[in-house]
Design goal:
This protein is an alpha/beta fold. The protein has helices at about 1-25, 35-40, 45-55, 60-65, 80-90, 130-140, 160-165; strands at about 70-75, 100-105, 120-125, 150-155, 175-180, 200-205. It contains seven helices and six strands; from the N terminus they run ααααβαββαβαββ. The chain has a six-stranded parallel β-sheet with strand order 1-2-3-4-5-6, with no helix packed on it. The longest helix has 22 residues, at about 1-25. It is elongated, with a radius of gyration of 26 Å.
Amino acid sequence: MNVNKRHSTSTVDNAEKKKFKQDFPIARFEHLANELIYEIFDHLDAQQLHQSFFSLNQRLQYLCLNANLSLRIGMSSASKTIFERSFNDMISHHQHRIRSLYLFNPFVIDYFTISQCSQLQTLTLGNIEWERLESVLITLASAPNLVSLSIYIGGVGKQATVYSLVFQLPALKSCKLNFQTDAPLKLSAISINSVSPIERLIIMDNYSFDEIN
């Protein structure tokens, strides 16, 4: 009796599974339309995109190279070899579409021509030399869409120069400056005659309360 009940239940289950497969056929990823794959791509940063899809087949490689994406580049821990492969294979083809850069490896920033990143909106920099930072900020003066900037830098450097250059950025709305240094800030060297569009400013630096004005 119990055997017949189990057999009957199994038959019903199999029939339901078969009907489910007919009503909702299982699609393979490679069978998805290009538009759906682009939607998936848009949720990944460039490193994830390259590692996950670029080498799978010719179609996905073509889509990686030709997708009209606004890329996010988040290179905080990638080795130089891995980054170079990603940059040469794919990222270099999309510099004009990059909208977000998160760069904490000191060698990575040298691969990007900031002036070519015309769509850049968000930039985070860390572990960068003071001289290189100054050069980048000068270049960013011609970045029309940069609205958010975060900088993390240590050691003794030209804080006043960095402040002056940041306040001259034409479209900047949000800025976080984290100067991990014990060197006192010399406010007399900072120009206060310029007008900045910054609406949200976070400063972590070494200065006295009386110097805030």
